[in-house]
Structure formats: structure tokens, C-alpha cells
Amino acid sequence: MPVSHIRPAGRSPVSVADHDLRAGVLLVDNRDIVHLGLRVLLARQEWVTRVLSARRGADAVLLAERHQPRVAVVDLFVGSEYGVNICRAIRECSPDTRVLLTSSSTVLTQHAARTAGATGFIAKDTAATEMLAAIRAVAHSNPRFVWRPEVARGPLSRRQQQILNLMAEGATNPRIADMLGLSLDTVKHHTTLIYKRLQVPNRAAAVHLAQRLGLLSPTPPPELQQPLQRAA
Description:
Helices cover 42% and strands 16% of the residues. It contains nine helices and nine strands. Helix 1 links the parallel strand 2 and strand 3 (48-54). Helix 6 packs across helix 9 and helix 8 crosses helix 9.
């Protein structure tokens, strides 16, 4: 299992606020480009003492238990595994490790992140300086909850949220079309977009993941719903 000790020349100077900060960072992602990119950024930070890499949940848990890193940066989707589950497992075996969840395509709610034991969430496609600032904020001895999802492309549209809620209630596509006054083709189009945004293959997986990420909201009775234009 690879453990990277990165101490190259040319590191960024330590600020006064970071003077006493020393932290190991665990990266949990199944994409090599993410490991390479973040390792280069973190290697230049004087306060980073060690960078660990894991591409599976089981490896992440073993590394966290063995090395007790201060921060674990965990993607919401690590291959076929859910990052919220990996977060919980890391926190169970290494309670002092703070988890920063991240994603380039999907955002979860603050409640779901906190329930999983995370110390924050940040969009992966944010600026490098913002990513480093978020990791550093989580590493501090008195961390604040980091919430920077603005750049993520994942939030569902209002129409897609309606359809996802109805899917969770067991409504079929024809029933959803009838309830929302849409054509069946439009409903099918939106369900396809939902699958892509959540990175899931089908309806059952979409509902299951939405429940875990806290994306579902109660559907008001039809008479209380605000009308939407038919072309959504």
C-alpha cells in the first residue's frame, strides 16, 4: 500500500496562522489525475508532513487507522463506492481524522455531510487556492465546517428535484408525466439527466443515493405546488 512522504524543495512559506500547524493528508479517489494534482499542490505546503494515497475504501480505512492523518479528502464516488460510507468508516477507525468530502459532479446537503461525520464539502473543480484553503481550514485544531459547493455542477434543477422526489415515492414515468403536466418523453429526458448528474445507472440507484446524500425533499400536495411552465 503506497505511502508518500513528500518533502521537495520550493515549498510555500508558512504563514503566522499556520506556524504550529503540522498535518498529514490522506487522498481517497480512484482517479490518478486527482492524486497527482493534489499531491503536487500539497507538497508545496510547509504544514503538510505527509501525503497518503488510497484508491479504494478498504485501503483508505487501513491507512487512516495506521497513520492517523489529520485530514482525509474523500470523493463522493470512489469507483463503485460511496464517499459518505468511506467517511463513516474512516471516522470510526480514526476519530481524530477530519474528512473533507469533494466531488466534480454532485453536491450533497450539509445535513448529510455532518451525519456522515465530515467536516465539510468542497467542489472539486474549484480553484486550487480554494481547495488548499479548505484542506488547511479542516486541518486546524479548531476547524470550522467548510461548505463550498458553489462551483459543483451537480445541483439538480427544480424540475429534476420534483421528478426525483416522485421517483422516491414510487411514481412511474407515466404517473410523473400526468402529475406534472409533462409529456412522457420530457420525463424520460429529465430522468436521464438525473442519472448522469448522480452518476448512477438506474432509478433504484438514483433513489438510494439521493437518500444517502440527503437530496430528497417532501413533495407538497398538487394543490400547493407552484405551477411550472410545460417546457422544462
